[in-house]
Amino acid sequence: MAIGKKALIIAGVLAVVIVAAVLALQNYPAQTPQSGAAQGKFRIVVNPGVAEKVSIKEAQELEKYLEDLMGMDVELSYPASSAALIEALRFGHADAALGPGALVGALAVSLANAELVAVEYREVIIDGKRETAPYYYSYFIVLKESPYVYIDELRGKRVCFPSETSVSGFIMPLKALADRGYITPGEVERPRDLALQFFGDVVFGGGYAQCWAALKEGKVDVTVMAGDVAASLYWEAMNNSRVLKWKDGGYAIAGPNPSHVVLVRGDLPEDVKTKFVNAIFALNNKPELMRNYVSAIFVRFERRDVNEHLKPLIDALDYLKIKEFYLR
């Protein structure tokens, strides 16, 4: 079919326009996302999962409280995942993060240039005593009537960990096993594979209570208990179990496990950062609200050095070579 002269002219004009547009896009400078703080709005991402626990009224109360203290518009957002929270800080879509767990905090500090400005002090049990602290410990336990005394005897046996993403219930216990030569860090498809170097079967129960139930019912031979669980669960488990020992005779304890954190973007202007930090410490006057936004055992926020609080966990992730898994 013959193509008319008019059609050829139109096609030629369109081609010129398209080429010009492509060239313009190639030469157009990349735009860096503008900080919310620079626009007079301070954007805070909160701990993933919080949206299910807080009411609209509580969210509005927190926004209003922070706005009054900071003298600027505050916007709270509720990311669907830990990765989304980290990316928001990394690419300037958020100015701060309120209450993420230690794992998210460690990844944000090491990969997103986030700065630790406050940590949670929480109600925990350490050495059988109630304490208010920014850390706690976890313990490898077996039932009281179990024949096992040393963790070496559990090689090839069944273990229950609360979750593959639990710092106190999995990551730090793995680090304790690696430190003593029971497992060898290396590139693995998932962290569970490291635990399988020593244990015969690895179960993720979904929580400490579920793992304790599995131990009582004989479904596993060993589990982990931590000092930040509900006191009733802690004492039921510890009064009816024994803490295993390492081969040197010391108790099989992992930690210290860091508490939740408050972060800001590394390039946040100092004056804005100061306003935010002051507002965070003012939230110590609203502990009930923070128990919804941070953790159920929240007591207060305090300052703590990042090397003291998060570096042991960052080092554990690097040593075990599992950091990338938690960014998926």
Automatic annotation (TrEMBL):
PANTHER family from the UniProt entry: PHOSPHONATES-BINDING PERIPLASMIC PROTEIN
GO terms, biological process: transmembrane transport
Keyword Signal: yes
Name of the protein in its database record: Phosphate ABC transporter substrate-binding protein
InterPro entries named among the record's database cross-references: PhnD
Pfam family, any one: Phosphonate-bd
GO cellular component terms attached to this protein's record: ATP-binding cassette (ABC) transporter complex
Organism expressing this protein natively: Pyrobaculum aerophilum (strain ATCC 51768 / DSM 7523 / JCM 9630 / CIP 104966 / NBRC 100827 / IM2)
Keyword Signal: yes
Keyword entries, A-Z: Signal
